[in-house]
Design goal:
Number of helices: 9
Strand order of the largest sheet: 7-8-6-9
Radius of gyration: 20 Å
Number of strands: 9
Shape: globular
CATH class: Alpha Beta
Number of domains: 1
Strand content: 25-35%
Largest sheet: 4 strands, antiparallel
CATH architecture: 2-Layer Sandwich
């Protein structure tokens, strides 16, 4: 990189969380919605800003994170009339193409880092609106569990903080490019509308679980939504895995509605118990891969 002599960058660093899919997803009337399942696994973004014409970007940075790069450019145009150019770096161990909100985490962290570099306090509503302009976005960027229209970004209603819970993440394999179940020409839209009353029921169970601080009720809502979605994106043996896990203390299951992972929801348990349960599940169901156990969090950007 080559910089103008004496020029100091304006820098910002921020983190955004991954998700184990969605706790609930569906439609209410004609409104698409989801409630993501944020977990304590993060993407880190660093943004360095220079006045235009004062830096040479490394070639490898141009294509490494194209959507996050696009988001940074959009933020600079919106916030500073495009007088800056940015160098973006991202570090993340979030698996891609699995439904774990890796793209939302990269984009959200990059937008927050850009805001900080400009001396702005990152606003989750503003950042999420910019993110939706890049691609459909998870609700993980809000600091609490949030009902969110991930397609248009027009609805964001806060539910609250989840009860203390952990999620044991398993991967059914492969990669799935997030499908648009909700477009007017989608073959799944009629089924989603038909399922709407049960999606509402799942959402109300989730709300009750948060309000009461009851992990059992919370997990019931997630499980209902997960099993409902089997008719749209089928995960083989999901019911068997969930049943086997319940016999070992699990409260329910949550899935990536447009991804390959599912999570088994547990109350807080010690590491040795986690290891034993994960080993037993992996042995009983060798077709799925254990990715780790994480805490379920409210979500939100941090810096």
């Amino acid at each position: 990189m080559i910089y103008r002599k004496g020029e100091l960058p304006r820098m910002g660093t921020a983190f955004a969380p991954a998700a184990c899919g969605e706790l609930v997803e569906g439609v209410i009337g004609d409104q698409a919605f989801l409630v993501s399942c944020p977990i304590n696994l993060y993407s880190r973004a660093k943004v360095c800003l220079y006045p235009k014409g004062t830096c040479t970007k490394p070639v490898e940075s141009e294509d490494a994170w194209p959507k996050a790069r696009q988001a940074v450019d959009a933020a600079l145009k919106a916030w500073q009339k495009d007088v800056w150019e940015a160098i973006l770096e991202i570090e993340s161990s979030i698996p891609q193409g699995k439904g774990m909100a890796s793209s939302t985490a990269d984009i959200g962290a990059a937008l927050a880092a850009t805001a900080l570099a400009l001396g702005r306090v990152p606003d989750p509503v503003e950042i999420t609106q910019l993110a939706v302009g890049i691609e459909p976005t998870d609700s993980t960027l809000f600091p609490q569990l949030t009902i969110f229209d991930h397609v248009e970004g027009s609805v964001h209603n806060t539910i609250g903080k989840p009860p203390p819970l952990q999620v044991m993440v398993f991967d059914w394999g492969g990669q799935i490019k997030s499908d648009d179940w909700y477009s007017s020409d989608s073959p799944w839209l009629a089924l989603l509308k038909q399922q709407s009353p049960l999606a509402v029921q799942a959402l109300e169970l989730l709300r009750d679980g948060v309000r009461l601080g009851d992990g059992h009720v919370f997990a019931q809502g997630a499980t209902l939504s997960a099993l409902l979605h089997q008719s749209i994106l089928y995960k083989p043996h999901l019911s068997d895995v969930a049943r086997y896990a319940r016999e070992r203390g699990a409260l329910g299951v949550t899935i990536a509605h447009s991804g390959t992972v599912a999570g088994l929801v547990f109350p807080p348990i010690c590491r040795s118990t986690i290891a034993k349960v994960a080993e037993a599940i992996s042995r009983e169901f060798p077709m799925i891969e254990y990715l780790g156990t994480y805490g379920i969090i409210g979500g939100g950007i941090c810096w």
